[in-house]
Structure formats: C-alpha cells, structure tokens
Automatic annotation (TrEMBL):
Name of the protein: alpha-galactosidase
UniProt record, GO biological process: carbohydrate metabolic process
SUPFAM superfamilies: (Trans)glycosidases, Glycosyl hydrolase domain
Broad EC category: hydrolase
Gene3D superfamilies linked to this entry: Aldolase class I (3.20.20.70), Golgi alpha-mannosidase II (2.60.40.1180)
Alpha galactosidase C-terminal domain span: 190-269
Keyword Signal: yes
TM regions (residue ranges): none
Keyword vocabulary terms for this entry: Glycosidase, Hydrolase, Signal
Xref: InterPro entries: Aldolase_TIM (IPR013785), GH (IPR017853), Glyco_hydro_27 (IPR002241), Glyco_hydro_b (IPR013780), Melibiase_C (IPR041233)
One term of GO molecular function: alpha-galactosidase activity
Species of provenance: Linum tenue
Length: 287
C-alpha cells in the first residue's frame, strides 16, 4: 500500500458524530477536511488500483449519508487509475434526483432505493422512485469517464437467504412469476403504470404495469405514445409484439390494449418508423 501523509492523527480520520445510517457499528464518514483523512482515502484506493480492481462500490457516502467531498476525492483517484474502474455509490436511503445531480458526474452508478426483498410491497415501492429519476433525466447522464445510472441494486430472484431465520437457510423467491417480471421492468403512474424508451434501430419499447390485486385491462392510444416522445410527432400506427407472451400484436392504428395479471407487466417492442434518442416518461393510461 502506498504511504500517504497528511495532518491529523489516525484517531481524527473517522467522524464519530457521522456514523453510517444502516450499519453504525464502526462505519463512519471520513474527515476530508484533514490531510490525514484525505491520505487515508487515497491510500486505500491506490491499493485497489494496484490490485487491478475494476468495480468499486463505495458505501455510506450517498442517500442519507451523503458526503460529496469523500466521493470527489475517490472519483479523482478513479480518473487517475491506469485502467477503467466502475465507481458505484451507496446506500440509496432517502436518495433524491437533486442529490444525485450533485454526484452523477463523479460516479457511474448510485443507489436510489433501500433493500427490497421478495415481497410485492417492496417491489411496488420502487415504481414512483424510478419515475422521479426518469423525469429528472438522470438515466444515462454524464458520469465518471462516461455515463452514470440510478441503481435499484437488488433483484430478489431465484434462491434467497431466509430473512426470518437470518441463517444460511435458503428459500425460493416468494414473488410470483408476474411480480418477478415487473421487478425486471419497473416504471411510473398510479394503479396502472407505464414506461417508454427508444432503441437504436428505430424501435420503441413500451411496458404496462398492473399494481392492482386483480387482473386489469390496460390501454393507451397512439397519440399518447407520440406525446411521450420529445418532438411530439403524431403516430398513426405501429406494429409490434409482446415480449413475455411472444404475442404478435399486428398493426395498431389507434389503441394498444392488453389484459395484465395482478402485480404483472407486459413489455412491447414497437416499430412506428420513428428515430429517437433514449427517453423515458409517464404515459396516459386507461384501465
């Protein structure tokens, strides 16, 4: 490890009055106002760089533990590295778009949610959060030596630790198949929600989400799809398919409708002869 020297002693490096919110036992912010604090951060990350580490998740510096100074110092170390390093920030407790704008250019990922496990309540709680960050145009923004992305972090799929027993005992995810598909997509709205984005080959990606406890018919009209796109160009018709069911939707001249299972989602790939940049926004839905 490269030796770094600065004013202040080792007992001054940690800020005991600013412990990490989710794990306060010994985890605290680094006092970057002291040379010793800066030296501590630089020496650790210099060691990571020497080891060839290419992904660093920096905890206790974002969300309710925001420390822009600490992030700035580490970000500069990443810039000076002799190989690319993805820089990720955590935790996401109480994270907001305005908070993210302070650090998005310094990192590549930043956590925007607390832990979510295999319950529908946890999955549904993320929907408004993702909408807010999409509306703030934080998706794929300028980042450290590239782009930066809001990070939902956890995918509680497959075999999971049983939180009730807190032991090395594993259970299958309790999310239904429809809920797992919704977890993979996520979006914005009310009891029915939607997500829209564009691809590189003129295609449009559209997803419906049903947060109700019963099956619901979800619809949108072609004009609403056009309104969600930046140039507000009219869309007369689209061809497309639904990804999960592989259903060919044919030509849609006015509306796009599908029955979506409770807590489920539908994901469409549409070709409407439009060329767009990446964009996400809420749609007007009918259900």
């Amino acid at each position: 490890m490269k030796k770094m020297v600065g004013n202040g002693g080792q007992h001054d490096v940690g800020m005991k009055e600013k412990v990490c919110g989710w794990v306060p036992e010994g985890f605290m912010s680094v006092n970057t106002s002291l040379g010793a604090g800066k030296a501590f951060l630089k020496s650790i990350h210099h060691q990571y760089i020497e080891w060839g580490v290419d992904f660093i998740k920096h905890d206790c510096v974002f969300g309710s533990d925001l420390s822009v100074d600490e992030i700035t110092i580490v970000s500069q170390m990443m810039k000076e590295a002799d190989h690319p390093i993805t820089y990720s920030l955590s935790p996401g407790t109480s994270a907001t778009p305005s908070m993210a704008k302070q650090v998005s250019g310094l990192a590549n990922m930043y956590r925007i949610t607390t832990d979510d496990w295999d319950s529908w309540r946890d999955v549904a709680s993320h929907l408004n959060i993702t909408r807010n960050f999409a509306d703030a145009e934080m998706i794929g923004g300028s980042g450290l030596l590239g782009k930066s992305w809001p990070d939902l972090d956890m995918l509680p799929l497959g075999w999971l630790t049983d939180l009730e027993k807190l032991a090395f005992d594993y259970i299958a995810s309790r999310l239904t198949l429809d809920e797992q598909r919704t977890q993979v997509h996520l979006a914005s709205g009310d009891e029915t929600r939607a997500w829209i984005a564009s691809g590189r080959a003129d295609e449009i990606y559209l997803a419906f989400f049903n947060l109700n406890n019963t099956r619901a018919m979800v619809s949108t009209v072609m004009s609403d799809i056009a309104t969600a796109l930046p140039w507000k160009r009219a869309v007369r018709s689209c061809r497309g398919k639904e990804v999960w069911s592989r259903r060919n939707m044919g030509v849609m001249n006015h509306t796009l409708s599908m029955a979506v299972e409770a807590h489920g989602s539908a994901h469409f790939v549409l070709n409407c002869s439009l060329k767009v940049g990446i964009y996400m926004q809420s749609l007007s839905l009918q259900s």
